Amino acid sequence: MSMHGGGPMGRFSTDPDQVRANNAEAPKIENLLGRIAELFSPYKLTLIATVILVIVGSGLSVIPPLLIQGAFNDGLFPASGAPNLEILSVFVLSMIGIWLVAAALGVWQTYLTSSVGNKVMGSLRVRMFAHLQSMELAFFTKTKTGAIQSRLQNDVGGVAGVLSNTISSLLGSSVTVLASMVAMLLLSWKLTIVALVMLPFMVMLQRKVGQVRAKIAGKTQESLSEMSAITQESLGVSGILLAKSFGRQASEISRYETENKNQIALQVRLIMSGQAFFAMVMVFMSSIPAVIYLVAGVLILDQDPITVGTIVAFTTAQSRLLFPMMNLLQVSLDLQTSQALFARIFEYFDLRPTIKDPVTPSSMDLKQLGVIEFDDVTFAYPGSEADSEPTLKSLSFKVEPGQYVALVGASGSGKTTVSYLIPR
Ligand SMILES: Nc1ncnc2c1ncn2[C@@H]1O[C@H](COP(=O)(O)OP(=O)(O)OP(=O)(O)O)[C@@H](O)[C@H]1O
Ligand SMILES: [Mg+2]
User: Fold this and answer.
1) Contact at 8 Å (CB) between 390 and 379?
2) CA distance 303 to 315
3) What is the mean pLDDT of the chain?
4) CATH match of 13-188+306-356 with 1.10.10.10
5) Residue 419 CB less than 6 A away from ligand 1
């Protein structure tokens, strides 16, 4: 029993390992990136404006740490001794001004990305709906209803979110990381080395924890599918009839209970493995400034003239690294998710209806309106054995408008099949 779209841990789970597992299931589509780009081509200008806004906004956020250095060294603790309020207020006001501008740019950029994202999603939704209307009846009989709804709701719906989050956070975070590093280098290259030397350990740790979590998440997913399979089997009319007729209720309940216990244990393990990692990252990131104070002390004793302003500004710049770094780790996953979303959408667009309307339809004979005529119709269900008898063989009949016709025959003789063939 597959778990397409839905359930407590459905496709839109925020758990990274769950997302990874879902992405792996996505269909393979040729020239995927080209086709995605095509969808966004009507909004080129808006997208370019967004990119510029993100770069300028993130770039601006590097300036305040540099201003902090000035505020400390020239405003609060100048060489003359007493604080220089005039200089200090210039620094403080410029910092506040920059934050205001950055915030305004952020709001504007969110407006642009979300409007493009929603417009693309809106047109995809209508196109998908129209395309599905053109599919033949057989498509709907062989596709699970839930699966079609999931494409329309979850996959198309996810496009807007993915666009507004993924693209802007990819750009924004990369610019912030780069800019913070530049600011750190400008302030002190020695302290920069100390701060960055510890980062690779964190990435390694993240990988390790990710692998462990992926395993647990896989098992959790399987167990959830198993539980929903049991529910569907035993809580339907036929399942309940079977259980009641054969007195199987107790064994059904115990089957469900066993799987439920397994599920609970897995969920707790999954949550705890994430917690442990998160706690370690927090301790790690918080201890970097402490280590920097220590190294700064050593540097000052070594006659390296490092100022209080530089140390404070440096730790500020360094602390701005954490969030965008974590973001970038997340974004690579989001990018895969968005590719999987688009792949599933395009897979449906690529379905060709087996019955096509002629390019130049012949005009209708209005006198024949409402007449149903089968003229030597032979029909076999696709997938039936080649040498078996077709379901309908050389069937001919005519029903005039207003006529009542009864189809009579043994079960399986093809009455429903005839009615399915009428709408094409
Ligand atoms: N979707 C399907 N795929 C393959 N074979 C099918 C499908 N639906 C029906 N059949 C087969 O086609 C034959 C005719 O089935 P159909 O449902 O048209 O019979 P019916 O006359 O409506 O029967 P009943 O009186 O039980 O409703 C049967 O042998 C059935 O097994
Ligand atoms: Mg029937």
Assistant:
1) yes
2) 21
3) 83
4) no
5) no
The preferred substitution site among 381, 384, 419 for testing ligand 1, maximizing ligand atoms within 8 Å of CB, is: 381
Please say if the pLDDT value at position 22 is more than 70: no
Q: Residue 288: CB partners within 8 Å, gap ≥ 6? A: 195, 198, 318
d(CA 335, CA 338): 5
Residue 397, phi then psi, degrees to nearest 5: -165, 165
Give the residue whose CA is nearest to atom 13 of ligand 1. 412
Kindly state the tokens that stand for 141. 């009989």
Distance, CA 406 to ligand 2 centroid (Å)?
13
Average pLDDT rounded to a whole number, residues 287-312 = 88
pLDDT at residue 6 is higher than 60: no
pLDDT mean over 354-372: 83
Residue 118 confidence class, pLDDT cut points 50, 70, 90:
confident
Extract the tokens encoding 259: 């799987």
Cα maximum dimension of the chain: 108
Does residue 361's CB lie within 6 angstroms of at least one atom of ligand 1? no
Centre of ligand 1 to C-alpha 4, Å, is 28
Directed axis angle between helix 85-133 and helix 63-70, to 10°? 170
- For 86-105, how does the pLDDT look when each residue is reduced to its tens digit (9 = 90+)? 999 999 999 999 999 988 99
Distance CA 37, CA 27 (A): 18
How many residues are listed for the chain in this entry?
424
10 vs 22, 173, 215, 306, CA distance in Å?
9, 28, 17, 53
Closest C-alpha residue for ligand 1 atom 3: 381
Separation between Cα atoms, residue 392 and residue 319, nearest integer Å: 74
What is the band of 12 on the pLDDT scale with cuts at 50, 70, 90? very low
Residue 411, ligand 1, Cβ within 6 A: yes
